[in-house]
Amino acid sequence: MTPVTPLAPADWARMLIATEIVFVSDLAGTGFEWPTTTGFDDGATIGVLRGVQRKLGKVVRPYYGKRPG
Fold this sequence. Notes:
The chain is mostly helical.
């Protein structure tokens, strides 16, 4: 079995921005159609998203306003 390697902070930052875009963007994600395409309510989903943002805050903070290179 291959050992699991944790994601690097830059990868967590990329994952978080991709998740935010998919949730809220009509242009690049599902946006307005989120409940239709996923079956999840906007209100419940934003609560989960905020929880993820809080948990990752310390890890991704160095990338705020920057591109994770």
